[in-house]
């Protein structure tokens, strides 16, 4: 099973794909992706931080981060698609678990109730 981007949005900068930042070396935002299996409708939500080197402190975690020297949205999409190309699996849970190593999954740490 292969994952694909179904859609994306950024509440801080909308529409993110055409947003013009004043300084392309000083960008920092979170973006939401809906990612699901190729050939199927819908998917799960994944979040990732997009930032340039100038916004990351020495002791700051870069987990769930796409780190860029110089910002371009096409680079962001290329990085996400590269991640997705490495996250194939036998079923959706396996695929989503692999993606969650790079992006914050909506079901991270989810435990179903026993009711």
Description:
The chain is α+β, with helices and mostly antiparallel strands. The chain has one domain. Helix content is about 20%, strand content about 30%. It contains two helices and five strands. The chain has helices spanning about 75-85, 90-100; strands at about 5-10, 30-35, 45-50, 65-70, 105. Strands 1, 2, 3, 4 and 5 form a five-stranded mixed beta sheet that branches. Strand 2 and strand 3 (about 45-50) form a beta hairpin. The longest helix has 13 residues, at about 75-85. It is globular. The protein starts with a strand and ends in a 10-residue tail after the last strand. About 15% of the residues are buried. The mean pLDDT is about 95.
Helix content: 10-25%
Query: What is the overall number of helices?
Result: 2
Strand content: 25-35%
Overall number of strands: 5
In total, the number of domains comes to 1
Return the average pLDDT rounded to an integer: 93
Specify the overall morphology: globular
| Terminus-to-terminus distance | 31 Å
By helix and strand content, what is the structural category? alpha+beta
Major beta sheet summary: 5 strands, mixed
Residue runs with pLDDT of under 50 for 5 or more positions: none
What is the H/E string? Answer: EEEEHHE
- How large, in whole angstroms, is the Cα Rg? 15 Å
Give the secondary structure arrangement, pairings included.
Layout: E1 3-9, E2 28-37, E3 44-52, E4 65-68, H1 73-85, H2 92-99, E5 104-105
Parallel strand pairs: 3-4
Antiparallel strand pairs: 1-2, 2-3, 3-5
């Amino acid at each position: 099973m292969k994952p694909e981007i179904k859609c994306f949005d950024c509440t801080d900068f909308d529409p993110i794909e055409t947003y013009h930042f004043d300084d392309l070396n000083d960008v920092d935002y979170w973006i939401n992706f809906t990612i699901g299996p190729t050939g199927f409708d819908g998917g799960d939500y994944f979040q990732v931080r997009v930032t340039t080197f100038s916004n990351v402190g020495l002791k700051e975690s870069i987990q769930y981060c796409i780190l860029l020297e110089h910002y371009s949205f096409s680079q962001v999409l290329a990085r996400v698609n590269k991640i997705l190309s490495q996250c194939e699996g036998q079923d959706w849970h396996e695929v989503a678990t692999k993606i969650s190593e790079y992006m914050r999954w909506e079901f991270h740490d989810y435990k179903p109730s026993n009711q």
